[in-house]
């Protein structure tokens, strides 16, 4: 068997020799070979159990003991299925077949054929769980018996090394042929390690360890050799989409015009940037003809309010230095985003202004454009550098990308944002509401278990990483760990634990708390998103958990991984095992019971009206709540779902927000590129939600679509336009647009309920499609000023003085009358909602200053948009509210 020695040397010298030389690693490598622990721990435990005489006498104990020594070389489902097979097979039968497998006097391939046919994974006769010894576990037993003669062959690990080194051969896929080829290939590599790299007492586990290191490097690599080809294919794919055609035909020219006029205004007002002047500039560049913000939250009013909190002289000096000084861009950014930075000023604002000055030489640097470029493999995390240097690197790669694919300078931000949205998270878990199961260690030796159980939280360490919401990828975590520990280890398990804790875990997930490998301490359900608690002395990465059950249960018969955090969702047999050990698992007990009578006190609807909406939802299956901003549409939608569920059960509710770029491919199904650049069919959020509900038809499920009329509904729903009708559920099935087979159909289960919300005050939105309109019941929600529930809530729940409550009712009520009467441009759908005054999370005294802040920074910007063509009237109404 021939291997490419040049590539082998390059791989070993570049990636492995530093590991051979680094003696301070958690898992050191043998000089010339692989990780020490495979020999000193795994093999040392397993090989004495795999001798022939012991297998003859004690086959079950020997094989089961070897499995327990595996130290995560096997997946949980491989481990559990093999264990069940071993324990359920008669001793004599087990002994005969394993000894035949180990008999070197007969043909290796024939032995494998016989053993794998005998031990084939199949359903257990006593349960729905599967059991058996698959090819990977078979190769594990062979390697533990004699690692010099037999290779441990994990398919993806073996293929990674084979694709790199094999000459004139391709790695084989058929299991028996794969194990035979892998063994011969690993022996060839082993000889080279012994002869050319000085490996002493080596075996094929050394080669497996190096192959696994290569696979780990490849799976975490940012770019690939054929990235340019994949990139070109991706750009061509984007150019065929309706989104791009619409952008090119309808949006691009107005965008160019707006940006040119914004730069003219920046020059016009130079040195005299008042709040009014900056608002004019921001609105010019940011609002398209339909009053939809192009740059999203970057120039929206909440961020503008932060900017305008800076003294005018400081603002003018900041813009002058950034745009009109002789400073190089790097220096100007370092100064303006370093000591000169103020609230609201960040990478996005600074680079947007630079881009307006010269779009050919600058690029808007916001998370969406950066993620788009990162997805293309053109940027990756590195050592900490100044913001100026980082921008120059980002700008260079972005402009190279633009020129390579003949993209216009003012198209670039659209392309990168589109890639970020549609492809950037293609390899991460999407927000489908899918329940995941985790094992979790609350500190070393479960040190924090008692306090975590009492406080309803789970935490992890690695506090030096800081807030994980500021870290987008695993490579940044890895780099920070290597810097902290002063090594070059992959820190694979630690990196994955931190990434999953900050990004992958979702509210509604199950968590099994554990100590070590064989003690289960309890279980709970995740209740919150991740947050970083700076006030904790240690373990500052936190999520809230509703811990449900507590105790000590032995799992030595089916050990858990030693890692801090492990996703076991894809090992249903193991999940069922843990549930069986701990006893009945009640999902609703992990959710807050929904006390309708109490909860209705914060919903300013009468009991009769709330029950009426519930009955409509039960009858029609589909309801849209419509009304002006601030009447609690989304809040009420969630409460409707919880009321029908009887619990605040996030596992049976899903939510998405429509917008103008949202498509059928996001919602139902479409093609997305995989990690190899091939386009594969991926299911959308509603498809997965319906599949999940279909597996649990005895319970209702609720899907909330926020801002439903922001999307192109006919385009998003497609053939679901018919399937969502109440009388078309279950009984009707249609093939989807991207179905691979005409016989492959989809239906919306009868236990799925849709709740949409619609803002009647948004000028940018089209009317809801009439075909879709008849499939929903529409419920109007109105502001609740002067209602008894609203007054009681403000007084008793929030603590607002009665005099201030009266002022809120009188002044907002009078304003809403004016808005309602102005039917030509406004009307009842534009009234001010009560939610502006209902937050229970505010700080400070609930006094006149609190009221003025709400008016000045939340309601006044809205009124200015309402009367954009009559600013004096807007100012008049604001003054009346504030007087």
TrEMBL record:
Domain of life: Bacteria
Cross-referenced InterPro entries: AAA+_ATPase (IPR003593), ATPase_dyneun-rel_AAA (IPR011704), Methyl-DNA_Rec/Restrict_Enz (IPR052934), P-loop_NTPase (IPR027417)
Family annotation (CDD domains): AAA
SMART domains: AAA
GO molecular function, one term: ATP hydrolysis activity
Domain AAA+ ATPase: residue ranges: 619-782
PANTHER family assigned to the protein according to its UniProt record, in alphabetical order: 5-METHYLCYTOSINE-SPECIFIC RESTRICTION ENZYME B, TYPE IV METHYL-DIRECTED RESTRICTION ENZYME ECOKMCRB SUBUNIT
Protein name per Swiss-Prot or TrEMBL: AAA+ ATPase domain-containing protein
Native source species: Desulfosarcina alkanivorans
Lineage start: Bacteria, Pseudomonadati, Thermodesulfobacteriota, Desulfobacteria, Desulfobacterales
């Amino acid at each position: 068997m021939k291997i490419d020695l040049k590539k082998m040397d390059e791989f070993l010298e570049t990636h492995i020799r530093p590991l051979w030389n680094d003696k301070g690693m958690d898992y050191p490598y043998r000089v010339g070979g692989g990780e020490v622990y495979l020999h000193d721990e795994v093999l040392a435990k397993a090989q004495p159990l795999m001798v022939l005489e012991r297998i003859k006498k004690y086959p079950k104990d020997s094989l089961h003991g070897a499995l327990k020594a595996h130290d995560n070389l096997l997946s949980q489902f491989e481990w559990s299925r093999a264990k069940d097979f071993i324990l359920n097979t008669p001793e004599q039968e087990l002994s005969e077949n394993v000894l035949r497998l180990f008999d070197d006097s007969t043909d290796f391939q024939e032995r494998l054929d016989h053993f794998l046919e005998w031990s084939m994974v199949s359903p257990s006769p006593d349960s729905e769980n599967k059991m058996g010894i698959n090819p990977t576990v078979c190769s594990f037993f062979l390697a533990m018996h004699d690692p010099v003669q037999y290779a441990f062959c994990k398919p993806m690990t073996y293929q990674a090394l084979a694709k790199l080194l094999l000459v004139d051969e391709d790695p084989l896929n058929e299991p028996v042929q794969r194990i035979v080829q892998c063994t011969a290939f690993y022996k060839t590599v082993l000889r080279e390690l012994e002869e050319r790299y000085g490996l002493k007492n080596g075996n094929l586990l050394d080669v497996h360890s190096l192959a696994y290191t290569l696979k780990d490097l490849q799976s975490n690599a940012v770019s690939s050799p054929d990235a340019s080809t994949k990139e070109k294919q991706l750009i061509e794919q984007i150019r065929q989409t309706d989104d791009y055609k619409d952008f090119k035909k309808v949006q691009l020219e107005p965008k160019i015009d707006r940006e040119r006029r914004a730069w003219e205004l920046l020059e016009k007002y130079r040195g005299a940037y008042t709040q009014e002047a900056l608002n004019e500039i921001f609105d010019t560049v940011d609002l398209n003809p339909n009053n939809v913000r192009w740059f999203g939250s970057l120039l929206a009013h909440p961020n503008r309010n932060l900017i305008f909190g800076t003294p005018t002289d400081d603002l003018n000096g900041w813009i002058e230095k950034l745009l009109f000084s002789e400073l190089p861009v790097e220096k100007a950014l370092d100064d303006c985003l370093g000591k000169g930075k103020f609230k609201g000023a960040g990478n996005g604002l600074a680079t947007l202004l630079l881009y307006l000055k010269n779009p050919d030489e600058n690029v808007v640097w916001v998370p969406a454009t950066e993620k788009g470029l990162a997805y293309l493999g053109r940027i990756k995390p590195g050592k900490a550098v100044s913001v100026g240097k980082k921008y120059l690197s980002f700008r260079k790669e972005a402009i190279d990308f633009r020129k390579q694919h003949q993209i216009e300078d003012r198209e670039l931000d659209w392309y990168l944002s589109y890639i970020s949205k549609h492809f950037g998270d293609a390899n991460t878990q999407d927000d489908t509401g899918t329940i995941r199961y985790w094992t979790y260690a609350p500190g070393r030796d479960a040190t924090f278990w008692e306090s975590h159980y009492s406080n309803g939280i789970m935490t992890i360490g690695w506090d030096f990483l800081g807030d994980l919401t500021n870290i987008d990828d695993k490579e940044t975590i890895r780099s920070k760990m290597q810097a902290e520990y002063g090594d070059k280890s992959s820190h694979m398990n630690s990196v994955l634990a931190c990434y999953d804790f900050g990004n992958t875990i979702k509210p509604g997930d199950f968590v099994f708390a554990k100590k070590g490998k064989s003690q289960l301490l309890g279980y709970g359900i995740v209740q919150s998103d991740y947050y970083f608690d700076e006030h904790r002395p240690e373990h500052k990465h936190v999520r809230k958990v509703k811990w449900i059950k507590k105790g000590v249960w032995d799992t030595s018969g089916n050990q858990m991984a030693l890692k801090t955090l492990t996703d076991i969702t894809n090992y249903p047999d193991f999940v069922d095992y843990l549930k069986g050990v701990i006893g009945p698992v009640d999902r609703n007990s992990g959710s807050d019971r929904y006390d309708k009578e109490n909860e209705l006190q914060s919903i300013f609807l009468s009991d009769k009206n709330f029950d009426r909406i519930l009955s409509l939802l039960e009858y029609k299956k589909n309801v849209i709540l419509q009304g002006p901003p601030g009447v609690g549409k989304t809040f009420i939608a969630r409460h409707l779902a919880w009321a029908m569920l009887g619990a605040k059960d996030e596992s049976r509710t899903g939510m998405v927000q429509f917008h103008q770029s949202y498509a059928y491919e996001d919602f139902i199904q479409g093609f997305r590129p995989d990690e190899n650049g091939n386009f594969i069919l991926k299911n959308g959020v509603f498809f997965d939600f319906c599949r999940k509900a279909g597996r649990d038809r005895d319970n209702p499920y609720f899907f909330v679509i926020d801002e439903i009329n922001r999307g192109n509904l006919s385009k998003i729903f497609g053939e679901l336009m018919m399937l969502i009708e109440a009388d078309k559920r279950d009984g009707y099935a249609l093939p989807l647009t991207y179905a691979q087979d005409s016989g492959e159909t989809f239906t919306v289960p009868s236990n799925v309920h849709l709740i949409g919300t619609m803002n009647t005050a948004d000028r940018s939105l089209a009317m809801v499609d009439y075909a879709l309109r008849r499939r929903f019941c529409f419920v109007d929600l109105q502001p609740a000023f002067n209602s008894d529930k609203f007054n009681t809530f403000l007084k008793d729940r929030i603590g607002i003085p009665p005099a201030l409550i009266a002022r809120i009712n009188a002044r907002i009520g009078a304003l809403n009358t004016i808005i309602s009467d102005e039917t030509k441009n406004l009307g009842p759908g534009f009234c001010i909602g009560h939610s502006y005054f209902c937050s229970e999370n505010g700080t400070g005294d609930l006094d006149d200053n609190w009221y003025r802040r709400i008016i000045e920074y939340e309601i006044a910007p809205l009124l200015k948009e309402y009367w954009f063509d009559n600013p004096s009237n807007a100012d008049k109404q604001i003054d009346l509210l504030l007087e």
